[in-house]
Amino acid sequence: MNEKIFIIIAAISVYIIVTIVADFKIKSFISEIYYNIFIVGVYFFIIVDIGDSDGLIPQIFDAFVFLLIPVSIVGTYTVLKKKRIYYFKAIDKKFIKENNEAILQIIEDYENNLNIDNESSITLDNTRIIFHKLNQSQIEGCLQLIGNYINDNREKLTAKGYLIYYAKTVGIPAIITLAAIVVVIKFMNYRPPIEVSEKINIKNEYLVGNTESNINNYGMVAEAVDFIYYAREGKIYRTDINLENDMVIFDELENLGKDTINVVEDWIFFRQGKEINRIKTDGTNNEILFIGYSLQMQVVGNWIYFISIEDDSKICRIDVNGQNKQLLSDKDIEDMAVYKGKIYYSYNTKEDGFLEVMNTDGTDKQFLSNIRTRNMIVDEEYIYYLADVEEILYRMSLKNKSRERLSNKQILKFIKDDNHIFYTLKNVDNEDWRFKGLYKMNVDGSNVTALDSEIYLDEVGMAVTKDYVFFVSTNGKNHPALKIINKDGVRLK
Questions:
Q1: Which one-letter DSSP state was computed for residue 390?
Q2: pLDDT tens across 132-144, in order?
Q3: What sections of 53-135 are H helices per DSSP?
C-alpha cells in the first residue's frame, strides 16, 4: 500500500513541477499534443497503479509499451484532426478571463486581416484557443499577437504572489486529488474482519494438507486417511480410497472455481476465486478465512502458507482461523514450497535468480543457489524444479548443491511421488493446447514411459495420490474431462 501511494504522490509531484516549469519556460501557449500526452501519461500511471494495488495488473509498470499505446493513439488523433488547440499557461488563466473582450477583439481583427473563408475559424474559451482549418503560419501569427498582448499587460507577481497563486491553483487541487485516490485505494483494499463460528486447533503441528506436487498443479486433488477429495466443475467431491461412492460435498457458488484443496483432520481448506475458505469434511460450515488473491496455498498444522498477491507477492501465513496474518519475506516471490519446518522460495532480480530457505516463522534466511525455479518440490535429498526460462526439469542436491538435468525435453508441468515423476511436454505445434501427452519416469530421470502421448492436458493439470494419477485431458476435439489412471497408466475412470 505504501509503495502505491508513493508512486501516486510521485506522479502528482511530476505534474505540479511540470506545470510550474511550463509557466516560466513556455512563452504563452502549450500545444495540445504535448498537453494531452502529458495528461494521459500521468493519469495512466495513477489509474493503472490503483488497479495493480489489487493484483489485477501485475508488473505493468515494467512494460513501457503499455504507456506507448494510449500516447500513440492520442498523438495520432491530435495530429490528424482538422482542429489545432493551444492552451494558455496556467498562470494566465485569470488574466484571460478578465481580458476576454480585448483578446476577442485581437482575434476578430486578425480574422478580418486574413480574410479567411467561412469554413475557417478561431475560437477562444477560458483555457484555450481553437483554430479550425488554418495553416501553421496563420496560427503562429495569431498566437504571436495574443502572446504579445498578454506579456505587455499581465500583472507582475512577487515571490509571495507566486507562492499564493500556486498554493491555490496547484497545491490544494493536488492534495484533494491525492486524498481522493487514497480513499479509493483504501476502499478497494478494504477487508472486513474475519470472524469464524468455531475456533479450531490442529493437534498435529506437522500434519500437511496436501503435497507440494499437487499444490503446484492447482491442488485439484487431496488424499486423506479414508477418502480422496477432488475439485471438478466448481464443486468439491469425496470418494473412497478405492474410488467408489463418489459424492458432492460442496457446491456453493459453482461459477467460482475451487482449487488448492488441503485436508487437515476434520477440515478442508481451499481457494475459491479471491478467497481462502474452509469447510468441514462433510461439506458443512463454509467460512471465509482470507480475502485476496493467493498462490501455492498450503496448510501445515495450524498455519496456512501462501504467496499473497495483494502484498506484492510476498510469502504470508495466517492461522487456520483466519487470524494472525504475518508477512514472512521481503521479496517478490516467484515460487515456494513448505517442507519439514522450512520454507524454500525463489525470487528474481534483473540480473539473476535466487533460491533461499527459511524457517516457517520467517527467521534464519539462508542462500542456497542462483537458480530460477518454477513448481519446485522438496524431499529428503533433492529439490526438483523446472528452470523458469529453459522449461527443463532439474533436481538439485540439498547436500552439495549439485544439479542434474532429468530430461532434455521441455516440460511444462510435473508431479512426483516417492518413486516416479509424471509430466507433460510443451506442445510447440498447437498454441490452443500447450500441454501434450502424459509421461512417467523414475525420479532420477531414467526409464521414460509414455502413458499416453496423444492427449492434451488442460491448464488445471494433474495430481497424484498413493495409488492413482488424476488429470484433466482431451483429444483436442472434445471438452476436457477428468481422468483417473493407476500408476501403470491403466484407465480406471
A1: T
A2: 888 888 888 988 8
A3: 65-80, 93-98, 100-114
